Amino acid sequence: MKKSIGAKTIVYPTPVFIVGTYDKDGKPDVMAAAWGGIACSQPPCVSISLQKQRYTLENIYEREAFTINIPSEDHVKEADYFGIVSGRDADKFSDSGLTPVKSEIVDAPYVQEFPLILECKLVHKVDLGMHIQITGEIMDVKVEENAADTNGIPDINKIKPFLFDPAGMSYYGVGKNIGRAFNIGNKIKK
Amino acid sequence: MKKSIGAKTIVYPTPVFIVGTYDKDGKPDVMAAAWGGIACSQPPCVSISLQKQRYTLENIYEREAFTINIPSEDHVKEADYFGIVSGRDADKFSDSGLTPVKSEIVDAPYVQEFPLILECKLVHKVDLGMHIQITGEIMDVKVEENAADTNGIPDINKIKPFLFDPAGMSYYGVGKNIGRAFNIGNKIKK
Fold it and tell me: Does an H or E element contain B114, and which?
């Protein structure tokens, strides 16, 4: 039996995207965004939604660029911190001890210590209410060598990403492989 | 050291949203969408991106409504099947043995056996290239009673959602709780 709990923003899994930008003075900043996901395969695009007053939003408008940095479990504390404090009030790279690296492809910094980076160019924005949905074209993906398989492809077990539970307000690691995509469903085909 | 792997649609976690719609003749259909996420807190909105030729896209245009159904690990095979076959060629509810239930709130069906349901009304669409990004306002969320905590809030450990690995093309369960959100990062605050 299902119970109605009202109109809430609860889905699983919800990501923890660390969004990297430069402000107008060139200070690198990072924030945590849980609202977002891949938006298009060709051109490859990713969307993130940011509250209108966010410092990061100003930065994206200014530079028309951002990075999405996927943290591993080892940096869950830093990722959480990036969602607690505003870049208006703190130097989050300095506070966390993590290292900003200037992307060679877009006008935004990425986090050196994080295993997977998407470098994005602003292509679309829409005002949905409390949040502005920002869509970036993914210009390149960079993966840490020790987080890739022998073909250079990201290996989820080495990246050790985590997810956000918006109902229980906690972070969870990734569990076991439970099946091959576009494969295990074939058993049902009539 | 980071290596460039080109412009690819790889992020973690990536969801497996099962999108429920009625077609113009009233046949209930479901498809799997991995591109999407929450898009706004107020009004609560969720986005999904669908290839232009998708049957589900026609249905959403026709009825201006859809559901997002979060499957548990127990139904990973069915969820995968929903991403393999088109509703033009098959009755996916009948093939999978799952049960369509008409939403009382929007003009779309949901999957009775899945633990968490979002009922959505189309509010925005944008053509990004290969995919159309569809945004729905979440009108209600329904949770299976045995997948909620004592306050009726969804419990991730009872829902047992899973995620999609777009690099390794596999599904993964949810692992351990690794920390409280908006809490564990406070240690870093200066």
Answer: none
Report A:56-95 residues touching B (Cβ under 8 A).
Answer: 68, 70, 73, 76-85, 90, 95
Cα–chain-centroid distance for residue B60?
15
Contacts of A44 by beta carbon, 8 Å cutoff, 6+ apart: A38, A137, A138, B7, B8, B9
**B26-44 mean pLDDT:** 98
Cβ-contact A47, B46 below 8 angstroms? no
Mean residue pLDDT across chain B: 97
Q: Is-contact A59 A34, C-beta < 8 A?
A: no
Tell me which chain A residues have a C-beta less than 8 angstroms from the C-beta of B90.
Answer: 189-190
Residue B105: Cβ within 10 Å count: 16
Neighbouring CB atoms inside 10 A of A18's CB total 25
Residues in chain B: 190
ipTM of this complex: 0.97
Put simply, whether the predicted model's pTM sits higher than 0.95 gets the answer yes
Are residues B12 and A182, on separate chains, in Cβ contact within 8 Å?
no
- Tens-digit pLDDT profile for residues A15-47: 999 999 999 999 999 999 999 999 999 999 999
Question: Within 10 A of A63 (CB to CB), how many other CB atoms are there?
Answer: 18
**Cβ A116 vs Cβ A159: under 8 Å:** yes
Q: Which of A117, A154, A168 sits opposite B156 (nearest CB)?
A: A168
Pairwise CA distance, residues A79 & A91, whole Å: 14
